[in-house]
Amino acid sequence: MGVGMDRLILALLLIACAGAALAARSVTVSPGFAYYQDRSPQSIAGEIKSAGYGDVRLVCTDNDKINDDLLKAFHDAGINVWCLTFVNGVYPPADLPPGWQSWQMKRRRPSNPDGFVAFCPNNPDYRKWKKQSIVAMLESHAFYGVDLAEPFLPAYPGPSSELYGCLCEHCAAAFEKMCPGVGGPPDFEDPKSPHYYKTDKALYEKWVGFRVATVVGFLDDLVNGKGGIREKCPNVKIATWSLGLDVADSLARLREWEAIDGAAIVKRVRPDVHVIQTDWPDWMKPDLSAGYPLKYKQIADSIRQAAPKVDLVLQTDIGSKPANRRGKAWIEEVEKAAKQIGCVTTTHYEYSLGDYIYSEPPAVVSVESEDGGLKLVFNKRLDGASASNIGNYAPSSGRVDYARVDGNVVHLAISGADGKPEITISGLTDDEARRFHHDKPACAMTESVRVTAE
Fold this sequence. Notes:
Shape: elongated
CATH architecture of the largest domain: Alpha-Beta Barrel
CATH superfamily of the largest domain: Glycosidases
Strand content: 15-25%
Structural class: alpha/beta
Strand order of the largest sheet: 1-2-3-6-7-8-9-10
Radius of gyration: 25 Å
Number of helices: 14
Distance between the termini: 37 Å
Number of strands: 17
Largest sheet: 8 strands, parallel, barrel
Helix content: 25-40%
């Protein structure tokens, strides 16, 4: 197939996807996780589809690492795919150009928590590179939309955090340009300084406004600036992100601590969708109530007032840490609560982190006839040794010649069967080695099940 035909097919896919409605349920997928390795794209898409999701936020880092076969599998399954990119930094390794070290955000104390390398949005070289890299991903692959995730400046709970930033020379220059005559940013180190942020409150308030303007301006440039997403990729849906946090006076605290003002973002950038991301002090709570989205109503109302037509989405975390692992019942309740504050859907980070991966035994989702046997689709990824053991499958007639495992799918070759045989399945376990955390044993079938082709 020639390059011209490839581009024509890509363009048709983009147009078709752009015309689709927002899906009812959304989940985030990090394709680099072990759970998605060494299995077919079709098995991944089928598992996500069988879990009830029609919309995927695909975490994307490097353009050349995006799997077009996976995108096609999602499209073939009727699933919208968003390109989720972190706009304030990267998780190494990443395809960065020479000299990228000069882009790094200057914090009160040098630190890259969890390995994340944060970059300064006022650095012109970083801003140019980020815009070009996003556009390249969207032009090269058939995405329904793009998520401009985590644009905030650190850090909770404000300047008292050693992660607070950015304090580089580009930010100082931009602050002076926005507020001439201020003489530089506040002093965050010396309480005796007349310009200490708790002492010179007028200077500090200007600094807070500057930080918010930095985030809004950065997103506006990525989307609406010359060579930006709207100019280069007009058919791609755009989702901006901000934060939700359950604290008193949350709108003011988010502005001050993390330079986030969702209303200002949507008013200036004019996205199709806006995502309210659950901030880490909330999602890390082991006992976080499924009704917590109701605490974000003030935030949601402010965004909707600024842009009544924007679709709101709530992002939540379902297991980045073992203590905050969430199950299906919790997820369903969160989705209901999110709709009560005006969100059209939720997106959960990340599918393979949910409690169901660590607690539910393998279960058959569907059975289909195929040439020479049966296709068994399960609710989760299976352990290859147990799932390929033909002794775990007992047909009512004929014999099982072999079992081929593909993630959550088992292809059974059956010979000598009369009609559509029933298959009794037992002894299967899930694939504990592919989990993100390894604090629980593999889940095994507790009893045998009998299935037949539909």
